[in-house]
Amino acid sequence: MNVSTLHTVTEDLAGLLSEVTPGDLGLPIFGTGEDVGDLYLSLVQQTLAAAAALAGPANAGDTWPELRSRADLAAVDVSGTCGLDVGYRESARVLLAAFAAAELPDEIITARYEEQLATTVLRTWDLGEALGLPYQPDAAIARRVLRHLTAILEPAQGAGRK
User: Fold this and answer.
1) Distance of alpha carbon 66 from alpha carbon 6, whole angstroms
2) Which end of the chain is more exposed for a tag (fewer CB within 10 A), N or C?
3) In the chain, where the domains are located
4) String of DSSP letters for 69-100
5) Is-contact 59 98, C-beta < 8 A?
6) Cα(45)–Cα(34) distance, integer angstroms
7) From CA 67, how far away is CA 84, in angstroms rounded?
8) Alpha carbon of 58 to those of 38, 53, 63: distances in Å?
């Protein structure tokens, strides 16, 4: 499977994570009850869980990055950035490899890929907003994500109109 689009958005997210300083970890993520530290931890957990669902837990490996808990985040040197991009890039690498090697029916892989793409774009936007660094994905990627989300929401909205 071609994973280049997902690679692009995971790099966008990693780029924003590279800007996070220890003082940013407590910044709220609008509408979620999370802060930047929580977002990072949930991103890594969700990314590795998605990889395990595609490749099986044994093939996803134990690839948790060094920063894996709030306590680890609290111990980060306050003199620079946190290095969250390094841990996230590792989990993203595992996920991309799992998509590339997945042996599931094409429709299942495609559905999971589109969901992961949408989630990554939305979480990147969330992080950018929290940091005050606007995120604007490539227009083709944004249209793709909107098509995916519309396809999910339209049946749900139609069901509520009876």
Assistant:
1) 23
2) C
3) 4-159
4) SHHHHHTS-TTS---HHHHHHHHHHHHHHHHH
5) yes
6) 14
7) 8
8) 26, 10, 11
Percent of the chain residues past pLDDT 70, beyond the cut: 84
Q: What is the pLDDT of residues 78-136, one digit of tens each?
A: 556 678 888 899 889 999 999 998 888 999 999 999 999 999 999 999 999 999 999 99
Helix (H, G, I), strand (E, B), or coil: what is residue 135? coil
Strand spans (E) along 32-157: none
Q: Which residues contact 146 (CB under 8 A, 6 or more apart)?
A: none
Q: Is the pLDDT of residue 70 over 80?
A: no
At 68, which amino acid appears? R
CA 129 to chain centre: 15
What are the distances in angstroms from CA 89 to CA 3, 83, 86, 123, 150? 14, 10, 5, 15, 29
Q: Cα angle vertex 111, ends 101, 114, to 5°?
A: 90
Query: What tokens does 118 get?
Result: 């949408």
Write down the mean pLDDT value for the chain: 87
How many CB atoms sit inside 10 A of residue 8's CB? 15
Average pLDDT for 136-154: 94
